[in-house]
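[job 4471] stage=fold_predict status=RUNNING
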Amino acid sequence: MTIYLIVYCLLFLFALLERLDDRGEASGVLLRKNFYFICAVGLVFFGALRYETGFDYFSYENIYQWFSGGLSAGRFEPGFAAFMHVCKNIFGLSYPYFLFFLTASSLLIKFSFFYKYFKYPVFLLLMYFPAVFLYADFGQIRQGMAVGIFLWAIPAIKNRKLFRFLIIWLAACSFHYSALIFFPIYWFYKIKVTPKIFWAGLIFCFLFNAVSGAKVIFYAAMKIMGSSGLGEIMEYALGYGESANPLSFFLEINTLLVLCLIPLYQKVYANTIKNGTEKHLEFSGYNVYILMFLLIKMFDSIFVIGYRGAYFYKMMEGILFYYLLSGLKERELKALLFLAVFLYGLARLFFIIQKQQWAYVPYRIFSDFFI
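[job 4471] inference complete, writing C-alpha cells
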C-alpha cells in the first residue's frame, strides 16, 4: 500500500506548490506547467504499466485472449471491440501492451482536458486519484475511457454545439453503455437547478426506482433492439449484479455527501462565476454535475448503470471542488478546504486499498515494456 500513499502525497505536495506559486508572470505559469507535466506523466505510467494489478486485470486478460476480431464482441461495445481488434489483430500486441495503450489513451484524454481548461490542474489530479483513478483506470478500463471522452462533451453542451455533443456522446457510449443515460443533459443544461428542483428531481428518481421504472425502460429497449448488439448490452445491463436496495437510495455515503455539499456548491460556485474569480472557466459544471447525479440515481435500481455511472459524477465532483477552492477569498478557508480534500482522499484511499487489497497489493510493473 506504501506506493499508493507515496503517489498521493506527491500529488498533494505538487498541488500545494502549484497554489503557493501564484505568480502571474511567465515564470510562474511555466513552473505550474512543469508541475503538471511531472504529475500527469507519472500517473500515466503508473496506471499504464501495471502488471497483474487491479481488480479487473485477469478478467480483461481472458476477454482479450478470447477476442477473435471485428466490432462485435458479445456484450462489449463497438469502440472497445475496435480498440482490441487494432491492438491484437493488426499490430499483434500481447495483453499487457494492449492494456498500456488503452490506459494511457484514457488518462491522456482526461489530463489534456484538465490542462486546457484549468489554471491549477494538479489539484484535479489530487482529487482524481482516490475518487476515480483506482477504480476506472485500475479495473473498469472501458468506463475510464468513456468518462474521459465525455468530459470533452461539456464545452459542447455549454456552447450549444449539438452535432459535436452527439459525436462525443456516441464515442463515449462506444466504450461504455452507461454514457447512454446522459443524453438528456444537453437539453436540460440551461435549467437553473434550484433547491426545490433538485429535491423534486431526487424524489421523482426515488419513486421511479421504487416502481422499477428504470428496468421497464431497459426491458422495452431490449425487446425493440431484439438480437442487435445494443439489445445484448441492454440484456447484460439488466442481468449483471444485484439491483440496488431502495433503502440505500438516500443513505448511500456518496449520496449523503452530495446532499451536504449542494448548498455550499450553490453559494460559493455561483459567486465564483459572478465575480470571475477563476478566469479559466469556460463552462458551467454545476448543472452538469447535478444532472449527472440525478440521472444516475434515476437508474439506481440497475446495478451496472447506477454503480458504474457514478464515475461520471465523481469526476465532476473533483471539478466542483476546484471551483469551490477558486471561489473562496479567505486564505484560511482555502487552506482548510485544501486540507479537508486531502484527508477525505486519504480516507478513500485507505478504504479502497483495504477493501480490495488482493487487487492492489503488491503493485507490479510491466518490466518487459522497457526491454
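[job 4471] summary: Confidence is low (pLDDT under 50) at residues 237-247, 276-283.
[job 4471] exit 0
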